[in-house]
Amino acid sequence: MMKRGNLLFATVAITILGIFFGQLSSKGAASRRTSNMNAADTNTVLLPNRSPLVTFRILFMTGSAYDPKGKEGLASLTAAMLAEGGSRTRPYSDITEAMYPMATSFQWQVDKEMTVFSGSTHIDNLDKYYALIREMLLDPGFREDDFKRLKEDAINYLKTSLRGGNDEELGKEVLYTMIYPSTHSYGHQNMGAIGALEKMTIKDVRDFYQSNFTQANLVIGLAGGYPDKFSGQVQADFAKLPKGSPDGLKFSRPLQTPGTRIEIVQRDTRSTAASLGFPINVTRPNKDWPALAVVASYFGQHRSSNSYLYQRLREARGLNYGDYAYIEYFPRGMFQFEPDPNLGRQQQIFQIWIRPVEPANGHFVLRAALYEYDKLVREGMSREAFESTREFLSKYVNVLTATQDAQLGYALDSRYYQIADFPTYMRAQLAKLTLDDVNRAIKLYLKSDAMRIAVVTKDAEGLRDAILSNKPSPITYNAPKPKEITDEDRIIEAYKIVVRPADVTIVPVDRVFQ
Amino acid sequence: MKVLLIASLILCLPLLSLAQKSRKAFGYDYNIDDLPNGLRVVTVPTDYPNLVALYIVVQTGSRNEPEKGKSGYAHLFEHLMFRGSEHYSGQERDAILKKAGADSNAYTTDDRTVYHEVFSKDDLDKVLELEADRFQHLKYSADGYKTETKAVLGEFNKNSADPEEKAFEVLRATVYQRHTYSHTTMGFIEDIEDFPNQYDYSLQFYGRYYRPEYTTIVVVGDLKRDGALAMVKKYFGDWKRGNYVPDIPTEPDQTAPREGHVDWPSETLPLVYVAFRGPAYSDYKKDKAALDLLAPIAFGENSDLYQKLVLQEQKLDSLSYTFEDRADPELFLVAAKLKDVKDTDYVRQQILETYQHFAKEPVPKDKLESTRSRLRYGFVLGMDSSEAIAGALASYIGLRRTPLTIDKLFALYDTVTPEDMREMAAKYFVDSHRTIVTLSTRGVAK
Fold this sequence. Notes:
The complex is a heterodimer. By secondary structure, chain A is an alpha/beta fold. Chain A is 40% helix and 14% strand. Chain A has helices spanning 74-83, 92-99, 126-138, 144-165, 167-179, 194-199, 202-212, 230-238, 289-300, 308-315, 362-379, 383-400, 404-417, 422-432, 435-445, 460-469, 483-493, and strands at residues 2-3, 44-48, 53-60, 107-110, 115-122, 218-224, 261-266, 272-280, 323-326, 348-357, 452-457, 504-508. A six-stranded mixed β-sheet of chain A has the order 1-4-5-3-6-2, with helices on both faces. The longest helix of chain A has 22 residues, at 144-165. The two termini of chain A are 24 Å apart. Chain B is an alpha+beta fold. Chain B is built from 16 helices and eleven strands. Chain B has helices at residues 2-12, 73-80, 90-99, 124-136, 142-159, 163-175, 189-194, 199-209, 225-236, 286-299, 304-312, 344-360, 365-381, 386-400, 404-415, 418-428, and strands spanning 31-34, 40-45, 51-58, 103-108, 113-120, 215-221, 258-264, 271-277, 316-322, 331-338, 434-441. In chain B, the strands form two sheets. A six-stranded mixed β-sheet of chain B has the order 1-2-6-3-5-4, with helices on both faces. Chain B has a five-stranded mixed β-sheet with strand order 7-11-8-10-9, sandwiched between helices. In chain B, strand 1 (31-34) and strand 2 form a beta hairpin. In chain B, helix 4 packs parallel to helix 9, helix 10 (286-299) crosses helix 13 and helix 10 packs across helix 16 (418-428). Chain B is globular. The chains are: A alpha/beta, B alpha+beta.
């Protein structure tokens, strides 16, 4: 099964680390075994314990940013062929048959710089489960019938699931394509482009596998109650992969032409969905990342009523189902409360997600989002908001890492970013953060003169004309509002969106991801 | 912290080997305490450190909406419960939960509404106080009410972009003509649009169902039963019992097959939904248990049908089934997403023949055994945190108010035979109880 998503980051630092993970390894009850995470020359992240569950996260430092030109989608298709195709000795149906009584599966997720395969098994079935996934990853079948099926799946995902069944994810993904031009390694959807996928061959997949699924790109993540010698066995098995060499690719911050740009995707839909954003040059190890994490949580904590935007747009005005802000890629946000790990990226964007509103309020809500964003940049955070958000995040890291699988995922990400284990890192950084740090980070990173806005709506021309006319877009409610809100509405309804006519484009939905 | 967490997993997952017999599916120690007012409290201490998961389960869902023009209120209430109560405004409530580092939300299904939070254990007392206030003294103005109804419309609108939601909506409305499962949890769109005019009715709904006899508090995590129970008693002890019992209509027998179709306005993969009327949840009658075991064998990823249509002939993008545990008789649904609308009749026929096949032929014994194994391992693999345990419990609490039903259900699975499965397939998969809904892009001919 695949995680339909994309994502974040990348440093191809395979052989480092370990010292940061010393504290993750077991003491106390789990001390019967030692972890090799202190060994600086190994490519493993091990979290042994005595749980009867064993969790795998097999990570390769490759992804859609490594798709060759004209073969956009190859990394995803290769991962799909490994996790949803047969091995050399077993057709895919045999594999699912063998997994069936164990209730196990093998998932894959491809982002820009990371490809991860994950699954958990009860310890009763460890040997059988591991034998299957080992074969899938190390001795793939690359059969034509699997290839045909998975290629069609990828095309259908882009064509109908994304274009035709989920306006919110569509808007978010379109925003990324606006920010990263096609010349940038991040400049296409992780699942690829329809035209490129249609031309792809099984030889492409074989070649990509050979050159990217190497020991140099590999990090083995294991957690749970696996036997003492098991991790050594896994390492020995995976030494069968070609050695390769870390390519250490650096992905640059995308240059943005100054000025606002708006892309309106025209689709026959009941409502209007919008995503806004711009690149930020900050990832987890940056000293200002924790400050921006506080800002994003305060301004728009994912799926939480505890955030400023949500309170202003949904709670006070009933405009939609929710409004959030992000400093890291977070795909599938409409389906889950916590982000998936292993979406590390060298480059990130700041993003505001406006969930669908009634089309009549489309222009107003864009103005409201920009008004609130400008206000954030102008005024920063108050002491009270800072203190409460910092306290929230210090505790919320426990929620983010509540499961063994999440702990392992975050540990792999911390290895990639070269920071201490995430909860420890966050608590330590948050403890020393000041309000000044946060407000300085807002001015430094969140002030942009190159806002990009993706909108999905039916009456694209009507919205474009309204935006360009800059005429007031008053909002009406079904109930009286406090004066504070109606006064603010007067400002928002006339809030000027400065954009050149040439920078508001309309794209029919069937041309997206083509 | 991390060290503590790792060390403590030992006790959290007591099922060291499922291969051992005499096993309980729900392997955690728990207590059930009933307060005099009818409120039930289920406490499950685990050794996952720091966190407590609080799930408050109200046995009210869209099933409890039998009045004409009044669908969607259970779900609307899930929203209204966040708009403040007598002693805490919505903002004050948010501030307290934020301080607790809480992940807080709620959901509504056909049969239940569940309010859930996971947060630092030290904040349990305060969070219970907060919860008690909104369950006993919810307070929202007529204006605030109207604003929230718009947020619900926004939720309907975002869902409406998904063709699968629409096909399911039409299926429900086609199958059920009297019973409240005729509408989805969201409700009929005309009722959602009428929400703003129904403030008084909303108060009535709250008075009927937000009562201790409908409610079970589930607390799982880093806690002791006595302490948690004392806190619940302190804040919920004075809650007044109600006396409302809804008159939920029984669905009359279906006497002929039914069909429905949806024209979708934009490009989409065609859908074929083939459903039969199935039984309600039971932990002692074999009907549902037998069909639960049959479903993955007949229509799961390892089924012959899946192998043929998805892997070999590659006519389908996906094939799946749903057969939820429900308080009242629920649909056994097989959903196919086609690659080409021209295959609609063929796929539909293949699905129908598969239903019929299992009504005639018993499944092989080894297939049954591997399915039993799958259900058990699947249940255990899902419970990997206090929140996951509470979440798994909530669905059964919503049906029977006790974790015991889980052990009874899995014990029942152990008694099902291939002949039971065949017999139940023959009983339920009959033509007159069948409904088929298709969906395809408008203007694209089969």
